[in-house]
Amino acid sequence: MASKDAVLRKIGRAVSGRLRLPVVTRLVRYAAAREYEDGNLAEAKRLYEKIPESAHDTDIRLRLGVISERQEQFEAALRTYTEVADRDPACGEAFYRAGCLLKRQDDPEAASVFFSRAISSGVRDRRYSDKLLACLPESTPQWQRLEVLLSGLPEHETDAAWLRKILQAQLHLGLNGPARCTLESLADIDQLSAQELFEQGLIAHRDGDRASATVSFAAACEAAGGKACRKGPAQFACSRGDWKLALELLELYPGEGMSRADLVYELGLCLDRLCEYGRAQGQYALAASLDPGSGNSLYKLGLASERVGDLVTAERSYLEALRTLKKPARSWWSYRRGVCLARLGRHDEALESFWSYLGPAPRGLASVSKQRASTGFLALVRAKSTPPPRQRPEDLVESTIGDIMLGLHEALRSHGGTDDPDAGMDVPPAAARTAARSIRHILPLVLKGDRSNRLVLAQLAQDAEQIELACQILEQAEEFGCKDGLDPRAYGRTAGAARNIRYAEALEVLPVSPHLVLWESNHGASIGCHPLAVFRWMVDRPEYSHLIHVWAVNDLGAVPADLLGRRNVVFVPLHSTEYMQYLATAGYLVNNVSFAPYFVRRREQRYLNTWHGTPFKTLGRSMRGGLLDYENLQRNFQLSTTLMAPNELTRWALIEDHDLLDVYRGRTIVAGSPRLDTSLTMSGQDRKALRCRLGMAEDDERRLVLFAPTWRGGISKRELDREALLADLTAMASRDDVLVVYRAHRLSEKLLTGVDLPVSVVPKDIDTNELLAAVDVLVTDYSSILFDFLPQKRPIVLYMHDIEDYRAERGLYLDPEEVPGLACYDRGELASAIGRALAGEGIADEEALARYCPYEDGRASARLARFFFDDDNDLGPRAIIRDHALDPALGDGARKRRTLLFHASMIPNGIASAFLALLEALDPSLYSVNLIVEPSVLRGNKDRQEIFRRLPRHVHVICKPGAAPWRIHERSCVNNFARHPDAYTSQSFWDAYWAYYERETRRILGDFVPDAAIEYDGYAETWVSLIAAWGRRGSRTSCYQHNQMDNEYRDKYPNLRRVFTLYSDVDAVVAVSPGLARHNRTRLAELGIGLSLRQLSARNLLDIERVRLGAQAPAPDAFTALKDEHDFVLTTMGRMSMEKNQAALIEAVALLREQDGARSDDPGDGTEDDSAQGLNIGLAIVGSGVLEGTLRARIDSLGLAGHVTLLGQMDNPFPVLGGADLFVLPSLHEGQPVTLLEAMTLGTAVVASDLPGNRELITLGYGVLSGTSPQDIAQAIRTVLTDPFRARGIFDVQEHNARSLRDTLDAVLGSEALHQQSKEDEASPRSRCSRAASQGAIA
């Protein structure tokens, strides 16, 4: 017999077509539910869909969504879940499932909104908070992470892992009281770990409860075991690098297993790590006296003494430490003693100490070669002297060592010496001097840390009685000379990091070599262009015979034949260890493109950047396509001491169009193109030989046509249309009277791999500029090769088939009509265009030659070499020289403009709006305005790009590409400061810290120092440090405060402590209102931050035109609908963040609607209090942020869907701001909100929380102040509804801007500079205009 369930199912399916009766609906629903539970999803869906829509409840809709999801119909499922959530905000499962779907679709931001709404649905389910937490990105602020964790606490009260996450966030935010409670709750359900017991003790210690702290610390040490049992709780502090805390704990809670000597030693170690070397020296000395046999104490005493400059004590301590060792040979302590002895001038002892560390000193020449001085030895030495075939630096070093050995040996023999190495003959003085000169000459090529060659050279120097030189050589036998407590491997885990520390070490330790030249062209892909031309002109001239030439090249096959076999030329791969050392130490640097982002030019180095041709296509700021793709080119031009250009167009493109006109401090020379010298002076015989190599016999009557197009794509993304290239070449080769050869742009060469071309490809070893002498007709497009070919006075065909696309994607400086040549825009016309060129069309006229190649006479290489290497400025009329250090960009008349260097992150908020308004207000005739940006950050943030695109045209953008090189102890200081900003006060620490950032200022802008450097954000210590570092070089520096910084620090950003510490290193701390300045000065003083006279104020400016024009645009449909459906509409603007307090405003709206609704049933008594009865209030929120999900959930839970609209981030919010009845700013803390200025500019009524910045603006303009609770906000809004004129008034924004600009300039430039400026401003038309407008507004 069939079961009851089966019967009911059968009946349900049978009657599913007749659902007019309720009982039938129930049967169908039952059957559908059973099919669903059994997994028969298709049948369940069919049955559910038979049920009328009016009978669908939450359960049915939810199950339909689940069925769609399981059938992988995700869009339908998401749509269903969203509909369920909209109909039933209490259905947490619908929000949860929608969130899971979005997370699966890799949209965690949207998913987090639904998980937040699930939590707020009232359904308690731990899955909701688990998923919400999982959606948070790693960059989520700890305060927001803590909010999520606390929202899920009711479902996780017994979950130890959840409580530990809460504890971690609380400790990070410094919330000791809540953390103590969390630890107590955690202890009730799980055993506390050693680290947690330590934190418990630390909280008690900070609360002054020594007894409880002692108990917790003892339990922590027992649980941890090991060193903690001996050292006590200080071990925990040491393990996380908090040496200040460790010092404190050692003094108050020393470990029970520590002796007096151990304790003193550990105290010294803590002071040592804090860079308090003077105090550490005293502790180590005491420890050594308490335990004279402790070598470590003596060594540390020596190191601390060395660091404070007490070399005598240091040397003696190292010696005593060595005496405690049973086997002192090869001890690092000997190396440090050698360094001290060398500094003290005791070079004989120093050399002995170095040899003790590095190994036994080879004795005499015979032992250096590891053979006796014999015929075999001489053969070996002569073999080493043979010019090496590979021309690596080490080959030249070994060859030179062989020469020195041979010279010394023959000098000894000629003076009656003996072959016996024990004879101890003195080397003749002349031979010793010659050997010393040779050693010094080759020494720059020897790598720091290259022990094998350094030991041999040091022995040779010693044999030549050059003891001081031998010490210098051996001191650099260690790659990192002072690494006590710091492992270089830990700071160089990646290839880039390893490169950074090696390069920085060479920069700071090795001297610049005045006879070393580093040449580079085309990023090491080839040896050519202008650098090769200059090199060839000078390499064999006797006046330059003292120079050693290093070519950076990755492919030795690309080395021209005439560079091989030269004893003064070596080759190194790009970014190799050798390359980095020579880049750091070469006296002369030559490049036709750019050195890597880590490159920093030292003051003693000269850098010639030749670029590589006249630009037809745009460069720099004019270049379209990738955002700031020119970042490292700009930096290289800025760092150059000499910048070469063949004509004025190129000079303008390299300087002005790279935003360097006001900051470049090198020299520019316009004197022709060295790379064209060869083609212009090539003999007829050489031209014939070259044409023969290209396939043209002497009796060949055909003409040689070169096709040399530029490359397509961006700097980092190259493109090649192979089919189009084949078709183009085939069309050109269709003529019988020409031989076509093809040369690809160097950036496109790799893309040709495997392509079978119908014409010959020019061999790589033929230089492009030599090739031009052999060519009869050039076919090109937008390449600079066309300008190089002009002096040949032969025809050019400009094949510009994609000109419109190229102009749009990359940009062109010149209109094709301005460019000499025969224009061709279609492949079908190519062959005929070449024929016309053969007939004489397309040859440049004299006007074009005078414009683009005025100085091409075949002697440009000589002029440039003499100018760069010899400082020869007397080059005659064929050179235009400008020294930008002596002749900087000028403003009105002959008065130098003041240079301002800003940094701002350009996150779209009120700070960005105020910043843009300030930039717009700065008169470019008086101020050179420069903005430093990180292109990589901009590229990754589209919202910041929108702000970036709004920069005024007169703002120069300075790029900060890549990362700065650092020495390991500098990086250690920077890292330690980030972890424990209050711990470090010693001068030694700060010297290392600032060395890193000062190097970064030089990496970015070289020798240039702005008049004022301004950190406009004021939230990141890295940027404050960078700006402050320019102050150490002479700039006036300032850091802005846009908020109540104590609140920001306590509530959200504990890392602001780092910024507060750095306030003392800037000249001015600028708050955006006087009240905010008073607030911050007072409240930060309570945190131990004294601002004294540094605290200044300057109010935000407003872009009046943008606000008023923006308000005239149509409002968003959602806002218009909100206005249509409500009698009174409020708006607020700001990021959705805790301090903006939008949640309280939403609750205030709920209160007003409830109260008004209650009154609407009341007939009223006619009093004034009844005037707001029945009002229908709506709220529009403009902005986005981390709390969006939380706010949406709050709107749902209060039943305000349809009454509160979230409009998101808006590029133009002013139609909303101007169209609202009331602007409400409920913030918990603020600086001086730009949104308030904007509202008053548009005449919108205002309610704002009673904060210093708000209070001042309302005094200047109008509005009503309120508290920050929902009740206070609701009451203030109700007041405005009762008396609308109380929140309205007149705001003179022109006067506000004029006064604010004066205050800003006073703050960032200093009052003296501003006073001087005010006298000069009278000459500026823009200034007079601005002042007149301001006075008109006042009147």
Kindly report the spatial arrangement of strands forming the biggest sheet.
3-2-1-4-5-6-7-16
Total strand segments: 29
Q: Compute the number of helices.
A: 63
Give the averaged pLDDT, no decimals: 88
Strand coverage percent: 5-15%
Which structural category fits the helices and strands?
A: alpha/beta
Low-pLDDT sequence parts: 364-378, 1157-1173, 1319-1339
How far apart are the first and last residues' alpha carbons, in Å? 101 Å
Alpha carbon gyration radius: 39 Å
Summarize the amount of helix as a percent range: 40-55%
Net shape: globular
In this structure, how is the largest beta sheet organized? Answer: 8 strands, mixed
Tell me what the structure shows.
With 1339 residues, the chain is an alpha/beta fold. The protein contains 63 helices and 29 strands. The strands form five sheets. It has an eight-stranded mixed sheet, with helices on both faces. A seven-stranded parallel sheet has the order 19-18-17-20-21-22-23. A six-stranded parallel sheet has the order 12-11-8-13-14-15. Helix 40 links the parallel strand 14 and strand 15. The C terminus is likely disordered.
